[in-house]
Design brief:
Helices cover 0% and strands 60% of the residues. The chain is mainly β and 119 residues long.
Length: 119
């Protein structure tokens, strides 16, 4: 199983970016999908999650600005980031809590994608 993230980059404050993360391989089903981020010198923090049954959870500081969504047919999770702030600068990691075709449950991580917001 692999998670491939894309969509990071450099943007000015107030701008927008959309991250994507596609899971591939021997997947039976995917439970939670989501995004974490880690800024230099800081711990990794949960940004947003979306369970397979719907509903979403967000870090307080991104509520109203970020929107997480998923396409179950494509095993892909998205993070639409609007009104970006310099403090959103970090490496963003996607994750997926899934069952593989051997019905083994594990959490997988993407490779990380850099988001840099300039002031």
């Amino acid at each position: 199983v692999q998670l491939q993230a894309s969509g990071g980059g450099l943007v000015q404050a107030g701008g927008s970016l959309r991250l994507s993360c596609a899971a591939s391989g021997s997947i039976f089903s995917i439970n939670d999908m989501g995004w974490y981020r880690q800024a230099p010198g800081k711990q990794r923090e949960l940004v947003a999650t979306i369970p397979s049954g719907g509903g979403t959870n967000y870090l307080d500081s991104v509520k109203g600005r970020f929107t997480i969504s998923r396409d179950n047919g494509k095993n892909t999770v998205y993070l639409q980031m609007n009104s970006l702030k310099p403090e959103d600068t970090a490496v963003y990691y996607c994750h997926a809590d899934l069952l593989d075709t051997g019905l083994v449950r594990n959490v997988y991580w993407g490779q990380g994608t850099q988001v840099t917001v300039s002031s």
